[in-house]
Design brief:
Number of helices: 19
Mean pLDDT: 87
Distance between the termini: 71 Å
Bound molecules: 2'-deoxycytidine-5'-triphosphate, magnesium ion
Oligomer: single chain
Length: about 575
Amino acid sequence: MRHYKKYIKKYGFLFSVAIVFLMIEAICDLLLPTILASIIDNGVANSDLEYVLNMGGMMLLVTGIGALGAIIRNIISSNLSQKLGAELRSDLYRKIQSLRLEEMNQFEASSLVTRLTNDVNQVQMFVNGLMRIMVKAPLVCLGSIFMAVRLNASISWVLLLVIPIVALIIVLNVKISLPFFMRVQKATDRLNGVVREFLSGIRVIRAFNRGRFEQSRFDEKNEQLSGTSMKAMRIMSIFSPGISLTVNFGIVLVLLAGGWNINDGQMQVGEVVAYVNYMTQILISLMMITMIFNMFVRARVSAGRIGEVLGTNNPLEVKAEEASIRQEGVVFEHVYFSYHGTGEYVLKDVSLSAKPGETIGIIGSTGAGKSSLVNLLLRLYEPSEGSIYINGENIRAMDSKRLREQIAYVPQKSTLFTGTIKENILWGKADADMDEIQHAASIAQANVFITRLPEGYDTQLGQGGVNLSGGQKQRVSIARALLRDAPILILDDSTSALDAVTEQRLKEALSEDGKGKIIFLIAQRITSVMDADHIIVMENGKIAGAGKHEELAKGNSVYKEIILSQLGTEMETSG
Ligand code: DCP
Ligand code: MG
């Protein structure tokens, strides 16, 4: 609940205004049956036309005021709930952006999507419902009871009979349906999960002819969702008819007892009519109360799920004294890391340093921990032990925005976004001009192929850059990173899809342009890293060797093995 204080503060006043209009509406509703009773009993019974006309006018006036109140309240409530929903969504989205990757993994992307859309909708609907029903329904209910008893106390034993039964039904309803709605939201999560996985894996699914399997997976989750929803609805559907049955039974009793009393001369016809009217209003308001309770149950589940996201993220505290060392460049000090907090480390006791101007080659077999290493530098994850420094400052103590401004990153899997090529490159630096863009693209060896495209830099890319080849995507994402001109450049296996000649040209252009920068060059091929200033050989999360190519080629067994396996194949292809 603490996450919602802000919204209560912000929208509380408007909410109260809506409630005031709602009360006007309710009072008007309450007055009508009494006026009706006096028209019948005083006007009609005495054939007093003037009285009937006067009171009829009165009824019109009261109805009019009530309608006006309803209109104003409606405008306020729909405005307010839409605004609240939009703000909640936007806050939640901002929060999701700030989550660390391990926190995000804990929720699963599809569940975050459900929370962002469906769950926010539930809360929004509840707030809107509150403003339509909240005060009104209890007010009308209590008011009707009061007015009914005042009208005629002698048949009010009917109320004593009906009300406890109805209250019991409402309580049961809430108790039973809450767990069902939790399951409905979870089932929605799972359905979204299947769809998401399908969409992101569509090529592989088609290539392996797994369409039918995916369909059946979808159908299964879809049925689970509709099944759970149906169960929830079925349970709820027992309750409102239950209430109306009880109240209608009460009305029948009133009519019977009323008829008796009229015969005895203890009651008048108008009174019985008004009494039945009040009973109907009690019925309607009780229905509304159950409805709002049901909305409340769903909203509570959803608000809890939203709160879970809003409540995460606890930026790690760093003691000031451990925050700095005296060394320029990037330093890893005895870093250990595991993706799941516990379990086996994927990085073990990694220490390294890189000074400005140096190119650090990182090589090692797949799964050795190369990408993990740079993920830590980007602070996408936090090390389990040890520290990482940039220019002497512990990166934990740095604001993540400032940290990432110092790093240009080309991820292992090129990720491009819907928009033009130019827009994608501009991610590196939003205010760059065309010269800068072309410069970055030429270093990345992308300029040539981009200018050959019919629309050049204005070529529209589909989602994920689907209409480019693997190597083209890599080069666009290198250009994006280069545009940033940050002191640290990370290339995570970013030249894997380039041919040897293009890769060589890229490296030459980089060494020319990247003077004074720290470049982390991760690769699988020995030829990609062999002219680096310093090469780090990774094996099973550990540094198995470090030094220059010549030294390693002589003295490091892991490195020698890699050379052997790769030069062998290269000799075959070239010879
Ligand atoms: N790993 C994990 N969870 C992730 C990513 C990786 O548990 N989200 C594990 C799988 C590997 C280990 O961490 O055993 C190291 O993975 P890296 O991605 O760091 O390995 P590399 O980048 O060295 O491998 P590649 O050359 O295939 O990119
Ligand atoms: Mg990798």
